[in-house]
What does this fold into?
Amino acid sequence: MIHDSDEQTEQSTGSLNNLQVGAYGWRHERWLNNFYPDDLPPDWQLGFYANEFSAVLIPAHYWLDDDCDAEQWLNEVYEQFRFYVECPDDATAEKIKQQAALLGDQMAGFLNRKTFNAVDGIDQDSAIALINPQAKNTREWKNWLQAFAQHHPAGNLQAVFLSDEIHGVDQLSVEQVKEFKTLVELMGL
It folds into this structure.
C-alpha cells in the first residue's frame, strides 16, 4: 500500500514524542461494514488502518496465526508507524519477542500481561495502556490522562490502545478509537 509519509506523519502523530492512540489489533469484524471498504482484501487492512492511526497493539494471537507475516506488515505501513506487541505470559513471550524483532525500528514496545494493572489499564513497566473506552465517559478519560501524565513514575504515557471485548465478543468501533484520538489531540498530548 502506498502512503504519503510526510502528510500521514503530520496528521496522525504530530511527532514521535506524542502519545500514540490506536486499537488492539486491526482485524475487527465490526469494522468490515463501516471502516474498511467492501472490496478491500483482508491483507490490506493494516495499511488502510495505518492511514488513520499511528500505532497498533498486536494481540499475541496474531503471532500464532498461520498468516502472520511481520515483513508484509512493514510493507503495508509508512515508516513512522509503530507496532506495540502484547506478551501474555512467559511461555509465549520469548517466541513473540523473537518474531517481533523482525519489525526492527518500527517495534516500539511490549505490553506485558504480568505487569499489566487491569484496574487502571496500564502496564506499569512500559507505560502502555490497554483500555475499554466504555468504562468511562469523555470527561473521566480526560482526567485519567491528566492524572497519569502528572503522576506516573516512568514519565509520560507512551501509547493508549482501545479494546472493547464483552463476553468474548469484540464491540470496538472505529469511531471510539477516533474519538479517543481526538481527545488526546485536543489535550495536546
